[in-house]
Structures are given as C-alpha cells and as structure tokens.
Design a protein that fits this description.
Low-confidence stretches: 1-27, 43-48, 186-194
Number of strands: 14
Distance between the termini: 48 Å
Radius of gyration: 17 Å
Number of helices: 1
Structural class: mainly beta
Largest sheet: 12 strands, antiparallel
Length: 200
Amino acid sequence: MKKLYPALIIAAAILTSCSDNENYEGLDAKTFTVNEKVVDLDGKSDPEICAVTDLIAGQNYTAGVVEVAADSENLYVTYRTSGNWVIGQTHLYLGTLEGVPQNEPGNPRVGHFPYQASHSAGTNEVTYTMPINDIDDCFYAAAHAVVYLTDDAGNVISSETAWGDGVAMAGKNWATVSEFCKTGCTNDDNDSIGGPIRRR
C-alpha cells in the first residue's frame, strides 16, 4: 500500500489539473508569456531582488520565493522553489485588491486568475512576463501555486497549496496578497537602494 501512495498523489494531481483547465475558458485575454525551468540549485545564490516574498506551502513550510522585477518594457514575476519542492501549477493575479476574483465568502477563485499555467514534472522555476504598461504603478499580487515535496529520487511525497507570503485576504481560507509599486526599492524609510520594483 505504501508503494501506491506516490502514484495516487500523481494521479490526483493530473485529475485536478484537468478539472482546473476547464476554468481557463472565459478568462479576459492577457498578453503574457510563461517560461519554466529545472534549475540546478547546488551552489546557486539567489539574486538580490528587494521585491521578494516567501512562497509558503501548507501554511507552515517555506517552499521557495516569489520575486517581482521589471525593466523598461516588461514586468517579471518568478516563482522559485528550494530544497526538494517542485512546482505543478501556478495562478497569478495582478491588479487592485477589489479586483481579485473571489466567491461569495470572499475566498479567491484561482481558476479565474488571469495568468495561469500547469508545469512539467520537476519544474522549480517559473517566470511570467507581461508588458509593464499593462500594470498599474502600484498593484496587488496574489501568487498561488500547487507544489510537491519530493524525495531524493524525485518521487512525490506530498502535495500542498502555496501562496506568496503577505497579508491575509478577507475569505475564510489562508490566501494572502502583497502590494508592490513600480518605483525604486527601499530597505528603510530614507535609504533608496535602486531597482524598478519595491514591495509596499
């Protein structure tokens, strides 16, 4: 029975992925691209990006980070897992707090987020790229993911919902949201350290 456990999780993930894809219909058309990678994490240091928040899995585990960066043309939102965590799906909302798709109790409807994708086995880095002029000067980001914890052989041990760490949303689940602005990063009230994006 123990040997069946990873297979059951993978089968459930595939079924969930298929049912979530049905929710993609009717989304507002957005211009964006998604790139996924399998990155060798050995010896890799995270870049110094001040617009960064932890990616929290199952409310209790730090599974990686969510980074927000920009240049003169594009905004980039990157999910990067660490350790033995990998990414199965991502759902991303950028905009006003009031505009987050949600149901009657106020829980976010991730299947209606405008940026979303399913990812190949073993993916540990996903970047969404969208025109910077499509995003307001200050905006809220709700970054959701389905992540898997694997053993050293790559077998799935568990599946978790993950959110970019931030302030709690109004619903009865533990969804969180963060505010960012397209201005220079600051590490305190008076000291600008440059960069096009800062977390508010």
